[in-house]
Structures are given as C-alpha cells and as structure tokens.
C-alpha cells in the first residue's frame, strides 16, 4: 500500500506583508540584462555588478510590455466567439447552463433567446433565490424587441417535403426548406452534372405569386462562382407533369427574387440548366447545384431577404453580443452589453434599412421554463418607464423580490407604455439609419427586500446618452483589465478555444463583493433548475475556481469563501447535533452523543445565504465528511498564491482551524499512535482512509499548522495537528493489471467494495489536485504510480472528471502529447455554440480545467517553480503573468525547444526558487538591469526577493 509519511502542502511563510490593492498591476518596464554566471556557480556578485570582466552584452529578452501584450491578445480574443446563424436559440431555456450567448457581471446574468424575428434577453440575478417551499435559484424575467407588423404573408416553402434529382453527401434537398439558413450555411448540394432539379411538395394546393432562391454566395461570401446562372420555375398538379411559370437566365445575383402571375399549385420545381457561373475551373469542370434556401409567398410582398443573413455573436473580448436580424422587413444591427459595475443592461438597435421601422419593446416578469404559479409576477408603468417585478413564494423562510425597469432612448414616436399582467410594453420608431437604445435596470434580490421596482425605475431614469457612453467605456476597460491579468499562447487553436471562454464564464459569474455563483453560474431561465442551482460542496462548487489562482485572478474566489464562512454557524451546529446522519452505525459506536464538541460539518448542498433558515438546499451527507475539506482547499489555495496575511488572519485560518478541529475528533488512533479515518470517497460508499479525505486532510492540517505559527496563535492545537499530520498513512494503493495504482481507499465496506473504478470520476486522484499532495517535483516512483493511475482510469470523457483529470495529469507530468490529445478530443465533441463545455448535469465547473493548461506551462511544487514542465518539447508556447505559490507572478516563452526568458514579479518578497531551464550560462537581473545575487544547488536557481520587485532570468 505504500508508506509515505510526508506532507507537501503548507502555507508558505515569506515574511509579514501588507494587504495589497494592486494585486494585478502590469509588469514593470523591460530592462537590460548583465551576464552573470554559468549554472552551478556559487553566489553572484552584489547587485549591479557581474563577475570580473563582465559587461552588458545585449538587450535581454523578456515579457512583452502591457501595451504589446494587449496588441497580441486582443485579436486572439476577438477571433474566439460564439456564433449563431439561425433564430432557433436552442438551449436558451434550460434546467442547466444555457447554450446561447451569455453576459454577466458577477451579479446579473443575461441569456440570449427569442424566436424568428423576435429578440429576447432573459435576466437572472445571483442573489435571487426562492426560500419556499424549496430553496433554489430563480429567473427574474426579461426584455424583448420585435416588429409591430404581423407576418401575414408567410414563407410557404418552410417545412415542405423536398426531393432532388441528386445529392452530395448529407447536403439533402430538405436543407433548402428547413428554415436554418444563415451565415455560412450550405443547403442542398447536387452531384456533379447538369441539368439538376429540386422539387417541393407543399402538402396542399397553395397560391404562389413570388419565389426567392438564396444562392451559395448569399451565405458563404467568396463563392459567387457557384451562384445559379440559369433555371426555370415550374409548377405541377400531380408532381409528374411540369409547367414552366418563369425563366431566369444569366443570373449573377446572390439572391433571386421574382414576382410571377399568381398560380395555384401543390408542387413546385426548380429546373436548373446552368448551376454555376462557369467562371472558375472548379465551377466549370465540377458543376453542382447549390441552393441555400427556397422561399415561396402567396403575394408579391412578404419577407424580403435581408441584406445580410441572421447572425449573432458572443464577444468574450469585451462581454457583448451583436445581432444582425430583420424585423418588419427592415434589417437591424443590435449590440447588447451589461455594465461592469452597475446592473444596467443596454441594447442599441440600428436600422440599416432605407425606411423607418416600428418596434415593440416589452419588459416582463416570469420564467421561460417550468413557470411556477406560486411566484408573483407583476408589471407597471411610471411615465415613460416600464417595469416588471417578481417575488418568490411566501412561507416560513425568506421571500426574495427582484425587478426590471426599462426605457427607450433616442427613438421617435414613442407611445406611452402600457402594462397587462406580468408584461409592460411600448412602441417606438427607429429612423432609417438611426439608432435607438433600450436601457434596463435590474434591482432587488436577497432575503426579504422591499418592493424593488421603485429603485429600478429611479435607476433607469438616471441614465441618458452620456451616462450610457460612460458605462460602455467602463465595461470595455473592465474586460481589458480582466484579460490583461494573464494570458497564454499555445499555438493550439483548440486548447485556446476552450481556455479563454472558460475564463470568460468564471469572470462573468463571480466577482468580489457579489454573491457566490451556483452550479450553473448566474444564468437561470427556469423555475426548476437541476440540483436547485445550488452550491454543491463535494467538488462542484469549488471546481470553477481551480484555475483562478494560477490565472492571476484569485479575487474571483472570494464570493465562494464568503458563502462558506456565512454557513459556519450552521455547520458547527451540525457537527455537534447532526453527525449521526453521516453513518448511523459508525457514529453511534464512536460518538454516543451524536456529535463532536467542535468543528464543522457541511451538507452536500447549500444556498449562498449562510445559516439563515432554509439555506440548506440538499440536506444530505451521502456518508461523506469531506464537504468541509473540499471547501478548505480553496482557502488554502488563495493564501498560498497571494500571501495575503489579512485574509489568513480573518478568513483563512479561522475556517481551516474549524475544519481541523472536527477531524481531531473524527480520526482514529491505534495503539501504535498511527491515525486513520473513515468516509465515503464516492457518494453513498464507506471506506477506510478514503483517498480524497486523506489527501485533503493532510493539506488542511499542514496549512493550519503553518497558519498557527505565522499568526502566533493556538500553540496547543498546533501540537495536536502536527501529531496527527505526522502519523497519517500514505495515500492508499492497489494493483490493477499488474501495476500499482492509487485507490479509492485502503479498504471498502458495503455493496460496492471496488478499490478503483476505471472510467469513473477520478476521486482517487483528488489528493493530487485540489489537495496538492503530489506534483512534478515529487518522488519519481510515486509520480509513475500516479501516471499509471491516470492511464488506468481512462476517465477523460467522464462528466464529473473534466475539471479533475486533466489537472491531475498535468500535475504529475503525464506525457504532454497524450494529455493534449485527450484534452482536445473531449473539447472537440463537448463544446456548445457559446463555447462552454457541455454535459447534461453540470455548468461552470468546467472552467476548472484551465488549471491543467496553466500547470502544463508552469508549476510551483515543493517550493520550486518549473517552466513548461508538461509541454511538448517541439511545441512553442508562452505565458504572461501566471501566478504561482508564494505570490510570484511569472511570464515566460519557449521557442525552438529553448526557454527564452523568465520574468518574475515578487509580490510578497521571500525566496524564489526556479528550476534551471538552461544547460549553459544565464543571467539574473532586476527591473533596472542590475545584477542580482543568486545561488544554485543542483538544478535550482535561488534568489532572495523584495516585495514589489521584478526579476529576470535569461540565457546568457
């Protein structure tokens, strides 16, 4: 079973530091390097002086300046966006996380939705939770824009039965009439040859007076050579004998739009004699008919094909949504965004048509999915302001209320708003070429607020064109600052297409001072969200934050810390009074009172409202005592990566000491003084020395000991914790297919006694991450066992494992090419249109796998920073301002197999240790280019740093 007695994770003590406000400031100016020494030399000369005879030799390579970095990063982010070309809005209403375009500012969540010609945005709020009869997150309502003109001349071809003379691959005739045409869309494609035909059965006799054919170039610019040149429009009474109604010759247009003498028919056919323009070798030698969409109308009016197809894009670069859509036969361009610091939603609508268009704006309260009649939905009007308010059901716990208030700026002929039931609406005109802005304020949430619609009305009234412009600029600046905290360049489009949207979703969901996000972030569109949208504490609620620390965004985890701390009084009560429900027989045998005198015990599911009555969402333990341990990992990580002593004193250590106190009682001590513990690695299981519990307990005890010493408190408890820590067993192992692998426990009881579950959740590796008990600088034999376990588990595609296995594999040096291959294989099949990673049950936890990419590029393990430890030798990459333990912010690049530079900003001072990436001479300088003393021992470069200073390592 292995016999390790050492522990790895502890709070790094680097000296007393100030509480910092500039946690994410940019790198200092680049500097000149002085050649100092070759690897293995003892101590470099005093700062500012190199070895005898040394002289400045060249400008040192280093991290780009902030301006240079933004010039690199911005176009990358602009190219990573969600794109939609039809108006089905699939997945906008969901019991889990939506699949359409999403906006968020850490408090308000906005989900794009609607239908053909109708644009809606559904609004939720992080602290709008029902307390009765079930505690769960809930939507508020939304806003909608649509034409005031009903479509009285619909497309008769939509959904018709389509057949064709030939077809290429899956580009069947039905694709020309399914209503999904949009930018980039390919409809029916024939086989090579001419003539070709496509026929429609309308189901019954219809009057046809106009036909519209969208050719290939209409949706796929650059393919004008494949536009249909010659065709005849034919009708039939029986689908066999055809009559020519119209003939088109020498067409070059992207859209053929023809009015004909009205004819009554059930069957329609396009007989295509020249399917291409014959202007390129391909269109001449391989003529295929390519029809994107066919539309038929009963009169000469109807929906004019828009100048551009429908297109919506989610822009992660600045947190905005752009939409090109037609309403009232007029093409419109919309831009929608959410203010960064105020709860204000803005949609600007610009007419790109040649005439004014009348639109209706609505503000409504209610859920789009599974509406619960116990919620109260109301609306009203206050002057030119529309408002809608929603209240959660009444009962013994709290009632929450939230409101939306909207007004229209810049429009003409604005009608007085009206309200009916849950919806208020108004009608206005957008001038040709003009822009109108719909502004919506969002207020309320929390427990038992007063009616919030008055506040919403007042807030939206305070906005005008000038203030909206200021909010817009502040939003753009906020997102720029967010992205400039750190960045990676991987030369791998698939990985980056996961990495940056994952950062976007956690940045949109969680911000300091706001309410902690639930399992699906802050986007709720139904009154019946899965898992009640709660904070699931046996990894789901913690996993979204696994990557925020190394991504130099540790503040994003602060709302989670607050949610946990606010629940502590209830968790203390549960430890004293509710322990029997963990495992009745075991607790009765050890704790006759049904509890322990101190410490905390968390259920699996909570809301963000602390110890208030009704705050528990899932009042189960599943035979697990690990919920507090999972939560503690995030307190440990925050301090280790920031060295924020104020956090340690006021939040980190107080919570860790409570967790440690519980396990003082829970662990068992044998006659030889060795400790063990029981718990459930998987829900509903029971095992001795559960691997995740054991690993996380080691982390917690080491951090509590270090924190106690740092703060000079609890010396008596420190001795107890040190004794337990020093006598806990090694991580349990078993044998599988002749290889030693890490197991779920040292022994299991119950109906399922398997020690390892290949293909399942990698719970047996959670001692690696998030517990940090094994890393790239660990014993080679243990690392090999871990790598063999990753291979044996083969859990790359398992739903729960996504924010786990890739992190765990990276931490133990799994072969880089294999790791990247597995990662890209999963994301290539699991990426939703809005670029989130999907599965049927989970949400923002998928952002946690950003830690895998960061760990492949740089790791701080056993107090040593390693550069590109799990990156393919022949693959170039770079990273900018990734944060490491000890509050070191690191930038580096690797090209042609060689590390080009290492820039380190020391935020807390203390000892910097870097694994030497070079086999030849190197230099160490400060930001001014002065030589810095250092030592080497083996392959580790050691530098004593000062807080706030930047250090540069370069090959000589």
Summarize the structure.
By secondary structure, the protein is α+β, with helices and mostly antiparallel strands. The chain has 16 helices and 46 strands.
Outline the secondary-structure elements.
Blueprint: E1 33-34, E2 56-58, H1 66-78, E3 81-84, E4 102-104, E5 108-115, E6 118-130, E7 136-147, E8 161-164, E9 188-189, E10 196-215, H2 216-219, E11 230-236, E12 243-248, E13 255-274, H3 281-285, E14 290-297, E15 311-315, E16 320-327, E17 330-338, E18 344-351, E19 357-365, E20 376-382, E21 385-391, E22 401-409, E23 418-420, E24 423-430, E25 435-444, H4 453-461, H5 465-484, E26 487-489, H6 493-509, E27 535-536, H7 558-577, H8 584-590, E28 605-606, E29 616-618, H9 627-642, H10 645-666, E30 668-669, E31 675-676, E32 678-679, E33 686-688, H11 691-711, H12 715-726, E34 733-736, E35 739-742, E36 747-749, H13 780-793, H14 802-811, H15 816-830, H16 850-857, E37 858-861, E38 864-867, E39 877-884, E40 888-895, E41 898-906, E42 910-915, E43 922-926, E44 935-937, E45 940-945, E46 949-955
Antiparallel strand pairs: 1-2, 3-15, 4-5, 5-6, 6-7, 7-19, 8-10, 9-14, 10-13, 10-14, 11-12, 11-13, 15-16, 16-17, 17-18, 18-25, 19-24, 20-21, 21-22, 22-25, 23-24, 26-39, 27-28, 28-29, 30-31, 32-33, 33-36, 34-35, 37-38, 39-40, 40-41, 41-46, 42-45, 43-46, 44-45
Descriptors:
956 residues, alpha+beta, seven-stranded antiparallel sheet, 16 helices, disordered N terminus
């Amino acid at each position: 079973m292995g016999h390790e007695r050492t522990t790895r994770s502890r709070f790094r003590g680097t000296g007393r530091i100030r509480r910092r406000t500039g946690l994410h400031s940019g790198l200092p100016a680049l500097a000149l390097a002085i050649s100092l020494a070759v690897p293995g030399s003892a101590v470099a000369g005093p700062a500012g002086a190199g070895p005898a005879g040394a002289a400045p030799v060249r400008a040192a390579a280093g991290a780009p300046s902030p301006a240079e970095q933004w010039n690199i990063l911005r176009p990358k982010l602009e190219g990573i966006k969600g794109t939609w070309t039809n108006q089905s809005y699939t997945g906008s209403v969901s019991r889990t996380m939506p699949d359409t375009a999403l906006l968020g500012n850490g408090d308000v969540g906005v989900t794009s939705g609607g239908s053909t010609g109708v644009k809606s945005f559904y609004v939720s709020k992080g602290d709008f939770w029902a307390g009765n009869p079930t505690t769960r997150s809930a939507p508020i309502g939304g806003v909608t824009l649509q034409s005031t003109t009903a479509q009285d001349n619909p497309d008769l071809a939509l959904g018709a039965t389509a057949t064709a003379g030939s077809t290429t691959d899956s580009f069947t005739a039905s694709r020309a009439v399914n209503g999904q045409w949009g930018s980039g869309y390919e409809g029916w494609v024939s086989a090579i040859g001419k003539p070709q035909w496509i026929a429609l059965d309308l189901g019954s006799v219809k009057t046809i007076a106009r036909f519209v054919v969208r050719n290939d170039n209409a949706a796929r610019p650059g393919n004008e050579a494949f536009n249909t040149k010659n065709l005849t429009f034919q009708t039939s009474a029986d689908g066999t004998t055809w009559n020519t109604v119209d003939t088109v010759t020498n067409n070059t247009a992207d859209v053929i739009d023809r009015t004909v003498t009205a004819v009554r028919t059930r069957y329609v056919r396009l007989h295509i004699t020249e399917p291409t323009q014959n202007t390129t070798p391909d269109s001449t030698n391989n003529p295929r008919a390519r029809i994107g969409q066919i539309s038929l109308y009963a009169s000469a009016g109807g929906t004019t094909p828009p100048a551009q197809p429908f297109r919506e894009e989610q822009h992660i670069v600045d947190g905005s949504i752009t939409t090109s859509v037609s309403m009232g036969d007029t093409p419109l361009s919309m831009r929608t965004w959410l203010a960064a610091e105020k709860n204000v939603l803005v949609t600007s609508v610009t007419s790109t048509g040649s005439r004014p268009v009348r639109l209706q704006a609505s503000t409504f309260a209610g859920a789009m999915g599974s509406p619960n009649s116990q919620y109260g939905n109301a609306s009203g009007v206050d002057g030119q302001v529309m408002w809608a308010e929603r209240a959660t059901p009444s009962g013994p716990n709290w009632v929450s209320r939230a409101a939306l208030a909207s007004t229209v700026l810049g429009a003409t002929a604005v009608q007085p708003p009206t309200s009916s039931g849950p919806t208020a609406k108004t009608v206005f005109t957008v001038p040709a070429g003009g822009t109108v802005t719909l502004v919506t304020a969002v207020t309320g949430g929390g427990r038992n607020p007063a009616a919030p619609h008055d506040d919403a009305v007042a807030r939206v009234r305070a906005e005008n064109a000038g203030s909206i412009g200021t909010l817009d600029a502040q939003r753009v600046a906020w997102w720029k600052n967010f992205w400039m905290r750190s960045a990676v360049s991987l030369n791998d489009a698939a990985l980056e297409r996961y990495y940056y949207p994952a950062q976007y979703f956690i940045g949109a969901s969680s911000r300091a001072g706001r309410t902690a996000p639930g399992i699906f972030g802050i986007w709720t569109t139904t009154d019946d969200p899965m898992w009640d949208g709660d904070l699931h504490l046996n990894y789901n609620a913690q996993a979204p934050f696994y990557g925020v620390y190394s991504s130099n965004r540790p503040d994003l985890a602060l709302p989670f810390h607050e949610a946990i701390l606010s629940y502590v009084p209830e968790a203390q009560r549960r430890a004293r009074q509710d322990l029997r429900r963990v495992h009745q027989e075991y607790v009765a045998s050890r704790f006759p009172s049904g509890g322990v005198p101190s410490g905390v015990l968390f259920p699996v599911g909570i809301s963000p409202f602390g110890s208030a009555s009704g705050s528990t969402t899932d009042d189960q333990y599943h035979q697990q005592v690990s919920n507090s341990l999972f939560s503690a990992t995030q307190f440990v990580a925050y301090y280790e990566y920031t060295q924020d002593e104020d956090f340690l004193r006021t939040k980190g250590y107080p919570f860790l000491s409570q967790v440690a106190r519980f396990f003082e009682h829970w662990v068992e001590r044998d006659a030889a003084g060795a400790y063990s513990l029981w718990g459930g690695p998987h829900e509903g299981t029971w095992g001795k020395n559960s691997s995740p519990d054991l690993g996380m307990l080691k982390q917690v005890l080491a951090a509590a000991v270090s924190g106690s010493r740092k703060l000079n408190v609890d010396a008596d408890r420190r001795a107890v914790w040190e004794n337990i820590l020093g006598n806990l067993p090694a991580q349990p192992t078993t044998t599988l297919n002749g290889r030693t692998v890490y197991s779920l426990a040292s022994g299991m009881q119950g109906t399922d006694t398997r020690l390892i579950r290949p293909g399942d959740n990698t719970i047996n590796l959670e001692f690696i991450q998030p517990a940090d008990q094994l890393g790239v600088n660990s014993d080679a034999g243990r690392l090999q066992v871990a790598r063999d376990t990753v291979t044996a588990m083969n859990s790359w595609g398992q739903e729960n494992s996504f924010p786990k296995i890739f992190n765990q594999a990276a931490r133990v040096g799994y072969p880089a090419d294999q790791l990247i291959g597995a990662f890209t294989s999963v994301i290539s099949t699991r990426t939703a249109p809005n670029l989130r990673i999907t599965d049927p049950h989970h949400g923002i936890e998928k952002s946690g796998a950003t830690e895998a990419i960061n760990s492949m590029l740089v790791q701080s393990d056993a107090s040593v920073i390693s550069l590109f430890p799990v990156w393919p030798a022949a693959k170039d990459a770079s990273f900018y301002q990734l944060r490491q333990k000890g509050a070191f912010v690191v930038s580096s690049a690797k090209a042609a197999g060689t590390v080009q530079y290492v820039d380190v900003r020391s935020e807390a001072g203390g000892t910097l240790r870097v694994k030497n990436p070079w086999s030849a001479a190197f230099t160490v300088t400060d930001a001014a280019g002065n030589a810095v003393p250092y030592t080497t021992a083996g392959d580790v470069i050691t530098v004593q740093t000062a807080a706030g200073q930047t250090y540069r390592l370069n090959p000589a």
